[in-house]
Specification:
190 residues, Peptide Deformylase, five-stranded antiparallel beta sheet, four-stranded antiparallel beta sheet, 4 helices, binds zinc ion
Length: 190
Amino acid sequence: MKSEKLKELRIVHYGHPALREPAEQVGRVSGEIKALAARMIELMNEARGLGLAANQVGIPKRLAVVVIEDEPTVLIDPEMVKTEGSQKGEEGCLSLPRLYGEVERPARVKVRATNLSGKRFTLEGEELLARALCHELDHLDGRLFVDLVDESTLHWLVRTRNGEEPVIQPTTLEDALKVFLLAEEGARRR
Ligand SMILES: [Zn+2]
């Protein structure tokens, strides 16, 4: 991918087909993949996210970036090796902005992935990291947190004016997804 094309990449929102596409294996870590990973880290940082999967920039390849101990970590062709226990907690997604809800996830996970040097490594995570890893690996299979969310906890977090506390607005899954689909349709028409 040319560098101008990389610059044009944006985080896509619910309704974009790449979010539902099972991603393809990457295999060899080419210069193109390294450049894509770097751009994804940039976009994740700009959006202040904790993770971003390639599907979320419209490219269904098995590549994700996750913040681990404040450092962006690149996971290529990641696989879930082991999961243990369970935890319930709030989740959101850069592709479904302002929408949050509780999702049950394993308490501890072990993931195997390739790094930017092409070496396989193993990563263990618990609590928030376990949640982030599950969330990003789900993206690579075309799965979103709204597929697993406890609908009774689903809500919008609406920011009003600067300095004011954000307002919580409960919503149904159907209504929330409609909002995103309408926005996507509008974006396509422009
Ligand atoms: Zn997400």
